[in-house]
Design goal:
Shape: globular
CATH superfamily of the largest domain: Prolyl oligopeptidase, N-terminal domain
Strand content: 35-45%
Largest sheet: 4 strands, antiparallel
Structural class: mainly beta
Distance between the termini: 36 Å
Helix content: under 10%
Radius of gyration: 23 Å
């Protein structure tokens, strides 16, 4: 029988030590024909970011040896610090910001090979957000060059630019140095075109960005960008996450209708017409690009596009059929969906819910929104929490001076206690940092620490 005790005084099995020793922080994911990869930040290893490989038989391998961490410091916030090209892993090492590679047959734990030369100053040349040419000769990526590096003798602040790096190692070649900031360079399927996003002060990337394109000429052996041209961007829209589909059509997210919806061009290669919106509505496919390497959509092998979208603070997963223009919401038990990647008909992503901590999961996408069994790629290290102690979040909307605001409400929950009738719980209000952040709709021990002790929690969204 539950014990009668005031709100806020309940005893809980969720200790502060358990909260502070939380499991690894999951980052980006990648999928190939024979493996799934992901990055995870490990508090027990000083916060370093390891790359994990999962084979078809379920074996897990740590790929980076001691002393290496896949972490970029471009724009300081980083992201986009590693990528897999067929059977080769490339990554930016946190300590020196150089690009390294782990070749086929690489034995986990052995020393990676440096690709970019050492900078003149410590961490003076930083890299992120790469795309490989189809012939695997060059890495097209963002380089952040700091004062004192070659070509910047009188610079007083760092320069962001597009570069091409020989994949076997060598000096980077500058392709584009124009705007204050650049992100998301993506080489097309034929290796003929590169698209990227750029913007300049005073804009932030959620205020206004531009999508550019140029022809990539590697015929001389030294890459160069020919005739860079603005594709879209009128100074009032934010464009994020461009990429090419299997038939070489260009896709991107834009908030031209005040919501980051998904758009694409009908032309293959360089577009000449207007972009077309997919599933237009009051929801967001794009997200604020504080970091590189974000991915909210990808392409299945049968003319379908799988994408995540946020509505009323909750994430959903959907699939768009390019032939029928039909959109189906996928029935998956997740309220948080990030880092969407696809291979043939399999989609892999980082998913969580109000009762499940974030994990790398995979499912096969069938027709009309059907999905096969959802497989957890990364077993949770901690034993699962008894569901009776979990407070399930409830999205709420409440009035404010200037309209309404949103949040997620977590009621006090503990099967061992009940509060005196007619009393109310103390309330913990959690706020997020930054002007564009939001509450994450997934299980958090930080929140459950309070609710299991008889506190109510509102996570402002």
């Amino acid at each position: 029988m539950a014990e009668l005790a005031p709100y806020g005084s309940w005893h809980s099995p969720i200790t502060a030590q358990r909260v502070m020793s939380a499991t690894a922080r999951l980052g980006e994911v990648a999928i190939t024909d024979d493996a799934v990869f992901w990055s995870e930040g490990r508090p027990a290893e000083g916060g370093r970011i390891q790359i994990v490989k999962r084979t078809p038989d379920g074996e897990l391998f740590d790929l980076l040896p001691d002393g290496f961490s896949a972490s970029s410091s471009v724009h300081e916030y980083g992201g986009g610090a590693w990528w897999v090209d067929v059977d080769t892993l490339f990554f930016v090492n946190g300590a020196d910001q150089r690009i390294y590679r782990c070749d086929p047959g690489f034995v986990p734990g052995s020393k990676p090979t440096p690709v970019t030369p050492a900078p003149r100053r410590s961490r003076g040349l930083r890299y992120a957000d790469a795309s490989m040419t189809p012939d695997r000769r060059f890495i097209v990526c963002v380089q952040e060059a700091h004062p004192g590096e070659q070509g910047l003798p009188r610079a007083t602040e760092c320069v962001n630019r597009l570069v091409a790096v020989p994949a076997v190692g060598g000096e980077p070649v500058v392709l584009r140095e124009h705007a204050d900031f650049v992100m998301s360079p993506r080489v097309d399927r034929l290796g003929e075109w590169v698209v990227w996003v750029e913007w300049s002060h005073p804009n932030m990337p959620w205020d206004a960005t531009e999508l550019w394109m140029g022809r990539l000429d590697t015929s001389s052996g030294t890459p160069r960008l020919v005739n860079p041209t603005k594709v879209v961007g009128d100074g009032h829209e934010s464009i994020v996450q461009p990429r090419w589909d299997h038939d070489n059509h260009l896709w991107f997210c834009s908030d031209r209708n005040d919501w980051w919806n998904l758009y694409h061009f009908n032309e293959q290669g360089a577009p000449t017409g207007e972009p077309h919106v997919v599933a237009e509505g009051p929801w967001e496919v794009g997200t604020p690009p504080w970091v590189f390497g974000l991915s909210r959509y990808d392409f299945l092998s049968d003319d379908r596009v799988v994408f995540a979208y946020s509505s009323d603070g909750i994430d959903h997963l959907a699939v768009y059929d390019q032939l029928s223009t039909r959109v189906d919401r996928l029935e998956v038990p997740f309220t948080s969906v990030q880092q969407v990647q696809a291979w043939t008909t399999t989609v892999v992503f980082v998913g969580g819910s109000f009762t499940l901590s974030a994990s790398v999961v995979a499912t096969v996408v069938g027709r009309n929104g059907a999905t096969s069994r959802i497989e957890n790629m990364r077993p949770v290290a901690d034993p699962p929490m008894t569901s009776a102690y979990i407070s399930v979040g409830q999205p709420i909307t409440y009035p404010t001076v200037h309209g309404v605001a949103h949040g997620i409400y977590y009621p006090p929950t503990n099967p061992d206690f009940v509060a005196p009738e007619g009393t109310r719980p103390p309330l913990v209000v959690m706020i997020h940092g930054g002007p564009t952040a939001s509450a994450t709709p997934e299980l958090s021990l930080r929140t459950q620490y309070w609710t299991s002790r008889g506190f109510a929690v509102v996570d402002v969204n």
